[in-house]
């Protein structure tokens, strides 16, 4: 499941070689909360802090604590081990601009990018309407990267799970036939985007697929991950469209975004959840507005599923954020698990950190409460799901170090996330237990 994959808090190094993660800590259940215990004995004077191995952390000011891991979780909830490749400075890493492309040769074609890079220029601001630009090329390759992932995901899953597997999982085998249709859509998106890039900007500018690690174990996990990927696709397209200059490319992107939304609705209806011993479906239409996301949040969601890429991702993903429960109600106090570089002031000052909860075009921040577990000395954190999000059953949650909105243009104050929290106010689609 994507939820399971997102729980591995690591930073992806996208390269031609396989990324190898180093364990930082283990989770044990103490009372009503999960506690992070240091894999190595803590340094004197830092009993309450779980820190990453010193060789993995960048230099930080004397007032900062290296890679603090904070967590909170109800008893019995499973929180996976945390792994990290490198620490991210407070506020998250800014996007790494791609190399400035060489002047276009006669005929308007863009020369292929240097080996190991992604063609196109990351947008600094929405481009004026007109002819296709290098920013358009970047956005198209961004979309193609996600479509490659989705196409590969369905191919692997449907090769692994046949009709009998769907029947054994309590699903009509005809659902698998519908998944084959969804797979064909994703393949069409890949071929179409590749064709548009190559015909508009010249051969060699379309990004190739990456290597993936989907970790598919069950049909139910496949459906849940597929639903999360399709929701991410919708947020990615709605967030990126403002940066496209060429009207024809905007229209093409919009037509793909609507199909991703239809896929998400179907998969939400199939994605059963058991809450309070009642089996129901995630709402197929969980909100009156979709939530647009910027490049870094989207790549942060996709990163745990990517093993390696033949090109460097244009942004560095934020550290992963895991919630003690991903389904609940408004005003629930939710435990948080994330690894980030925090200053002493952020650790000790109430309100220094916030949960930024995004719903559609709106958002609400609630303070993060950090405390020290008296039994282990580990850091515990939680925040409240805001009542202001009522009417939305699908929320995106970030941890931020400033009382500012998380926007497509500004997410530098994000220190972890995003992750999804679902509110099951009312089950609109009933399913039978099997």
Automatic annotation (TrEMBL):
Superkingdom assignment: Eukaryota
Keyword Membrane included in the entry's annotation: no
Protein's UniProt keywords contain Disulfide bond: no
Residues that span the membrane, as ranges: none
Sorted UniProt keywords: Signal
Chain intervals with Low complexity compositional bias: 117-130
Annotated region (Disordered), positions in chain: 93-130
Signal peptide: 1-21
InterPro entries per the UniProt record, alphabetical: Ferritin-like_SF (IPR009078), Pigment-catalase-like (IPR052965)
A Pfam short name: Ferritin_2
Pro residues composition bias: residue spans: 98-116
Protein name per the record: Ferritin-like diiron domain-containing protein
């Amino acid at each position: 499941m994507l939820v399971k994959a997102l729980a591995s808090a690591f930073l992806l190094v996208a390269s031609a070689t396989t990324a190898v993660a180093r364990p930082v800590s283990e989770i044990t259940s103490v009372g009503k909360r999960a506690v992070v215990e240091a894999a190595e004995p803590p340094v004197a004077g830092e009993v309450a802090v779980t820190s990453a191995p010193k060789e993995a952390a960048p230099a930080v000011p004397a007032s900062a604590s290296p890679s603090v891991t904070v967590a909170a979780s109800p008893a019995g909830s499973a929180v996976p081990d945390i792994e990290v490749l490198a620490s991210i400075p407070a506020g998250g890493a800014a996007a790494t601009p791609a190399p400035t492309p060489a002047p276009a040769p006669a005929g308007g074609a863009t020369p292929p990018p240097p080996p190991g890079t992604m063609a196109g220029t990351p947008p600094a601001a929405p481009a004026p309407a007109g002819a296709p630009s290098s920013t358009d090329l970047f956005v198209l390759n961004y979309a193609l990267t996600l479509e490659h992932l989705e196409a590969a995901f369905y191919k692997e899953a449907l090769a692994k799970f046949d009709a009998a597997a769907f029947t054994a999982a309590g699903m009509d085998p005809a659902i698998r036939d519908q998944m084959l249709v969804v797979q064909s859509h994703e393949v069409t998106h890949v071929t179409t985007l590749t064709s548009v890039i190559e015909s508009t900007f010249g051969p060699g500018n379309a990004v190739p697929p990456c290597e993936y690690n989907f970790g598919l174990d069950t049909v139910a996990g496949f459906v849940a991950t597929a639903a999360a990927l399709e929701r991410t696709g919708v947020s990615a397209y709605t967030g990126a469209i403002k940066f496209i200059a060429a009207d024809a490319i905007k229209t093409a992107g919009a037509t793909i975004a609507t199909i991703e939304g239809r896929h998400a609705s179907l998969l939400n209806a199939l994605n059963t959840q058991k809450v309070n011993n009642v089996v129901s479906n995630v709402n197929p239409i969980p909100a009156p507005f979709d939530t647009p996301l910027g490049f870094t949040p989207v790549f942060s969601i996709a990163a745990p599923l990517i093993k390696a890429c033949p090109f460097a991702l244009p942004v560095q993903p934020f550290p992963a954020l895991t919630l003690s429960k991903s389904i609940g109600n408004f005003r629930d106090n939710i435990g948080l698990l994330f690894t980030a570089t925090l200053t002493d002031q952020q650790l000790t000052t109430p309100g220094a950190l916030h949960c930024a909860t995004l719903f559609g075009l709106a958002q609400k921040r609630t303070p993060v409460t950090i405390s020290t577990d008296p039994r282990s000395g580990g850091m515990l954190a939680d925040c409240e799901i805001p009542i202001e999000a009522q009417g939305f059953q699908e929320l995106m949650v970030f941890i931020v170090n400033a009382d500012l909105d998380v926007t497509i243009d500004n997410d530098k104050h994000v220190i972890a996330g995003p992750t999804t929290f679902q509110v099951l106010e009312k089950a609109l689609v009933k399913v039978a237990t099997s």
